[in-house]
Fold each of these.
Amino acid sequence: MTIHKAILLTLLLIFVFSLTQVGFGFIFYKTELLPEYLQKHVGITTVISFLVAYIVMFRFFWKPKAEIKKTLNFRNYELKILPYLILIVFGLQLLDRPFWDLEKIWNYLNYSEFETDFSTFNGFSPAFLYGTISTLIISPICEELFFRKFLLKKLMEQNSQKIGIIISSLCFAIIHIETPFNLFPTFIFGIISSLIFIKTKKIGYSILLHFLVNLLVQTLYVFDFTFDRWLLDLNFNVIYWIMFLIGIGITYFGIKKLLATPYKING
């Protein structure tokens, strides 16, 4: 696969998802086709839109057929990798922090103040349920299958491994461009996930890492971002940056140990 095609497929994925969302939005808010009591379930449209977008991409451009069943067969997976995945998850949480906080850091340096604009957890509502399904199930499985199992492998058929990793990770970052501050963290995650997939030859490990990263974020949200608030209360002092360096160290150690571990390739 060429670099241009990989980027175009990523943009097409975004287009199909957005088009589906617009269609559902029209049905929910501009028509009277649905009863009022279903309005609180509008969050399910995001789940369906994600599924529609990825199914379209798989059906018309990958056509994996039985390969997905084989891919999601978790026999012969090894638990010895789990501690390293957990280390990477916690390391990334610290490593990514300054990139998420760039605007706050800028405001603090220039105006000596910044806003703590955290989303507030409003209980286990239907919206939370559908968001959790998207975050913990749909995203880890579909995104890893598309960006690593499909895009990365196809890119490496016509390009070097380095180019394949960089471009597939860039495409992965593009779909998470809700805010520019999220681009670098998702790009770094894409590189790590790609390295794990290439090393183990099994996408299940990448799916598990993705799930654990999202699970930690979702857990922090439920508990009102207590850790995040503590970090921001440091006002970007020396301890804040030491935590960032610790995050780099933990992430590097986890990746190094994981890549040095022998794995069963068959099964």
Amino acid sequence: MIRVVFFVSVSVLATHTLGCDPPKIENGRIECNSDEDTCLVTCDFAYITSDKIEFYCDDPGLKAVQCVRPMTILIGGESALFDALDDVELISTKAQLRDRKIAMFPYGIVAPMVFWTDGVLMACGGRRPEGRAKSYEKSCWIYEPCENEWKQTIALTQPRSNGVGVVDFRGKPLVYGGMNENETTMTSELWNTTSPEIYWIQGPVLEERKMGHCGLSAKGGQKALLTGGYPTYLSQETFDMSSEAHDYVLNLIHKRWYHACGSYHGLLGEHFIVAGGLNEHLLAIDTVEIWNPLLHYWTEGPSLPESRSCGGMTILDGFPTILAGKSFLPQTSAMRLNVLEDMWDYWDFELKTGRNYPGLASIPETLFDRCLT
């Protein structure tokens, strides 16, 4: 069964509106465009929209949408024996959510790109071991929470794994770089939203080939930030996700790939973090760098309690948190950054399964509230 996820493009929002009367919401805001009768939901840091980001003014869902705390979903990954995993795990500070059983992914998958996009959880690409060879995927799947099953949707234009997936301020997904049939690529893809038919199309070309890099959505979804990765390990690129304009910013301090990255809001504004990863000699590292938003350069941050690579970063209860990955073997501990004390410590829970290269995304804690059971 194929389900198409539909996105609608919007122009820059007006401060005051004539055609829309947006409701007020806690932990966020709703802004509307009077020319197109559309509204966008923007949640505060450490919160996520419970549904879509973009609504028409007369959509009943606009009055029901909330900004809620996120939990994190881990999809697939690679075991210590290099097997592709097909299990899916919920990560939350709430035990009842961590214990919820999620349907297995349709097949074992390593390094897929996962999004919470327009009220839908979607996983695309990744690689599947076939003996000593690797098969690269371009299929995309969406998760139906009330049916607890995965359904296939529109595929990427080309097979791709170990890339970066981000979502812009309109809820539109984009993927950058990665591996394509054993070749590092400099291509990107985004959803076409300019015609009634929805499909992936070619996006902006990267300045260099990238894999094992880390990316995040910055400036409220206005920019995509890509850091490190093979083959340069240090370079950093930004893309304006409205105009597709490209820019370079200062290089990282340490060479790294297969690292984790994220952001938090401090006294100086939005800070970006890169943590751990592998160096150019394939050794796991524990160094951390934090982007100073006023001086516009990377500074040394507090080192990790242990070296960690091939995992990912998320936000749990407001704390930047590193999940999965390995020091030498896959780890089940979860490390969090205490920004006020400028140090890392561990959460009091562990993952059920150690895994490297999982797909990871933040999703709303209320995902299952719409279901009857």
Amino acid sequence: MRVLIAGMVVLLAMAMSSELASTAGRLQKTATVKDGVFTTGQAARGRERYEATCQRCHGADLTGGAGRSLTGVVFLRDWTGLTLDGLFERMQSMPPDGSETLSGDAYVDIISYVLERNGFPSGSAELSSARLSEVTVEGEDGPGVVPNFALVRVVGCLTGSESDGWQLLDSSPVVRATDPTPSSGDGLSEAQGIPLGEDAFELLYVFPSPANYIGHKVETKGLLIRAEDDNPDSVDSLNVTAVQSLSESCES
């Protein structure tokens, strides 16, 4: 009996350990920049690297110049809802002329400095390149709020005309996009699987004309322009960068 009980205790402990590990893994994969994902020492190294290689384009205070601002409203608008690997890839492409390249660890240090300058807390463990895809940028409004003027993707039913303007009806909720062009490959397959929703959008500056897609289920990408809060009859708009048909029918 003692052997049986001991065996049961071991199995229970193993099960609890497995569950805790699983829970820890889930928590790790849902980390945000508010969770202390870098250290102060790492941010200090990042500052030195930033000042040596990035400051001339993005400014001593990170507010931009020849390069885009890496702080404040602009930073959150560009990156809220996206994971840090996207920022890492963008940094790797800088400067555009390819005159300087850094190691992967150096870019991660610079990201840590950028996060610190944006007021996000440090933690006890350094940020690693392996964790970048697991950490989401999130502002004060939380992860579910896509900032105004962000590049987004929606799927909906195209209606309207050249004279009266174009609209998306029965649209899915907006999600962040990183590529303004029509989705392809896995991205296209993902778009085709998105169900229609209950939102509506005005489409602005649509070129070329999407007239051939009237009544189609379409993927639309563009810059989100939120409606004024004091006008209950207005709807959000998209300054369109791409429209493509996903299905000739809005029934699918």
